[in-house]
Amino acid sequence: MAERSTAAVDVADNSGDEPLAAAAAKATADGVDTQNGRTADGPVPDKDGDRSPAAPATAPELHSGHKLARRYRLEECVTRVDGFSSWRAMDEKLRRAVGVHLLPADHPRARSVLAAARSSALLGDPRFVQVLDAVEENDLVYVVHEWLPDATELTALLAAGPLEAHEAYQLVSQVSQAMAAAHREGLAHLRLTPSAILRTSSGQYRIRGLAVNAALRGITSDTPQQADTEAIGALLYAALTQRWPYESDAYGLTGLPKGVGLIAPDQVRAGVHRGLGELAMRALANDGATASRQEPACATPEELAKAVAAMPRIRPPEPAFTAPPEYQHTTYQQGIYGRPTPPGMGPAQSAPVVPPPAPLQSRTGRALKWGVAALLIAALGLGSWQLADTLLDHGNQGDNGTNQTPAGPQDAPKNPAPAEPLKIKRASALAAVSSQRAAASVDGNPDTAWYTPQYFNYAKFGNLLDDGSGIIIDLGSAQDVTGVNLDLYAAGQTLEVRAAPAEASAPDSVRDFGQVISKLDTAGRKFETTLPLAVHTRYVLIHITELPSDGEGGYRGGINEVKILGTPS
After folding, report:
1. Residues 174 and 305 in one domain
2. Which pLDDT does position 366 carry in this prediction?
């Protein structure tokens, strides 16, 4: 796993990776103490080398072992700058690592940080590192967010070299789609730096610090969509060239030569994918870049995402072929295992392979073969006759009622009572996709709905969610379920219905729902299934694996209303 880039590059962030030597050296050159995460002379520079003004308040003096809300135990301070600090902590209630930003309640940015954190938490998009808590207590404001120990910062990836074309394509595709979804909900990032982009072990890119990083830094913009689009363009430029597209060095990357302006990526490094290079220049057009074929500039993440989707697909590189080792006969295969070496042969020599005996071609040999064949035929005939006689005898005994086992109560067909809608206690979203809207799927109003974000390029949730998404229904207690009726947000969704074991407690993944009630199939706007036998369960999963086109160049699905039918216990 790659090491963690120091939080001095972007003090609002941390993923759980250790700093690379190159990043540490660059951080030290920028005035950052990599031993304790402090800056020697104030905030780190932005893309042009400017430094934001220092906040008058000071970060609270806390120490490892301090516990917040009797739950979050601080373990390691990774940043202390600008009047706030960032920590790796342990959520003792859920036994998992989390990240915590801390600042005094009287800090001039405390109110805006709280507001940004709560707005970000409502988005519920798994492409962003999730805000888990935002609290003010005991003269402190703290924001708790996910900690991804298996993720690697883009800073660390670029320290090893530029990304190959397919990986750079995945980066710009996933980040632009995620930011387009955020802007549709009125949220901007404004601090999209290489340290804000994490690549998970499964190849997915996650964005951390949505709205929160900018609030911690006091960054605002009159044109937030343009600012985020230019930032994505800078990330793509850096991914293709391993150079920061401005004159100032930043994030462990060397800037462009002074006085030459913003030149195309293929003029910085040979072999850059032409289409991706032009895409980076279109995103950076408002910073003075010019695409080689004069395409219009991309002014919003939505426009950039559509431009990426319009590109010919870039396939991953073919795996390198390695020739298998030359096959050699062992002494065992050569038929001399355990035999003495013949005279005149050294240890490195092998005895000649003795050819097998010639097939029987004589009159005696033919007689033997025919005799064996006749014996086999006779044996097969005798065995078949005895088997048939046994089966017939067993059938006759069953007809006479002498040996037939009477059907027990467990063999009798079950006739469940007439089904009626069961009371639903709670609905939640699988994979935390738009969790705050899950209740709309069980509110009895078909005009309200739970629906997914818009995904681009791939119907399977943009290839971002391995298990898809859906709604988990909690009936409050184990009930006899005999049917499921769905009013769907859009036709063409591929889905299945699953049930968890009756004794299950708070299942939250597809693997927890082992019983398939309805097999995977493409549904229309209405979906109904009736079970021949009741299933005793408390939790039912409406599992969506593939989304239909939304007519706007993307894919989206959802559920208007869920009804679970059965017999109340």
Report:
1. yes
2. 64
Give dist(CA 300, CA 322) in Å, integer: 45
The string of pLDDT tens digits covering residues 227-245 is 999 999 999 999 999 999 9
In a domain, 165, yes or no: yes
Q: Are 495 and 509 within 8 A, CB to CB?
A: no
What is the per-residue pLDDT across 254-303, written as a single tens digit (0 to 9) for each?
999 988 888 999 999 999 999 999 999 999 976 556 555 567 899 999 99
DSSP 499-544: E--TT--S--SGGG--EEEEEEEE--SEEEEEEEEEEEEEEEEEEE
Residues in contact with 118: Cβ distance below 8 Å, sequence separation at least 6, in sequence order: 131, 134
The whole-angstrom separation of Cα 24 and Cα 541 is 47
Domain count, the chain: 3
β-pair partners for 146: 98
- The answer to whether residues 71 and 52 touch, using CB atoms and an 8 Å cutoff, is no
Whether residues 158 and 306 share a domain: the answer is: yes
**For the chain, counts of helices (H) and of strands (E):** 10, 21
HSE, CB side, 13 Å, CA atoms: give it for residue 87: 27
Domain range enclosing 193: 152-310
- Same domain assignment for residues 167 and 139: no
Find the CATH number of the domain harbouring 211: 1.10.510.10
* pLDDT value of residue 57: 53
CATH number at residue 533: 2.60.120.260
How do residues 301-338 score in pLDDT, each as one tens digit? Answer: 999 999 999 998 888 877 655 555 554 444 444 443 34
Helix (H, G, I), strand (E, B) or coil at 464: coil
Tokens 């507001």 identify what position? 115
How many CB atoms sit inside 10 A of residue 501's CB? 16
Residue where a domain terminates, one of 117, 146, 175: 146
Same domain, 162 and 306: yes
426 phi and psi, to 5 degrees? Answer: -160, 150
The DSSP H or E segment spanning 392 is: helix 363-400
Top-confidence residue, 124 or 303: 303
pLDDT band at 202 (very low <50, low <70, confident <90, very high): confident
- Amino acid letter for position 46: D
Say if residue 504 is in the same domain as residue 523: yes
Q: Which residues pair with 51 in a beta bridge?
A: 45
- Token duo for residue 323: 């020739």
CA angle 294, 175, 308 (to 5 degrees): 35
Domain end marker among 123, 146, 169? 146
Q: Helices marked H in 199-345 — which ranges? A: 212-217, 224-241, 265-268, 274-283, 301-310
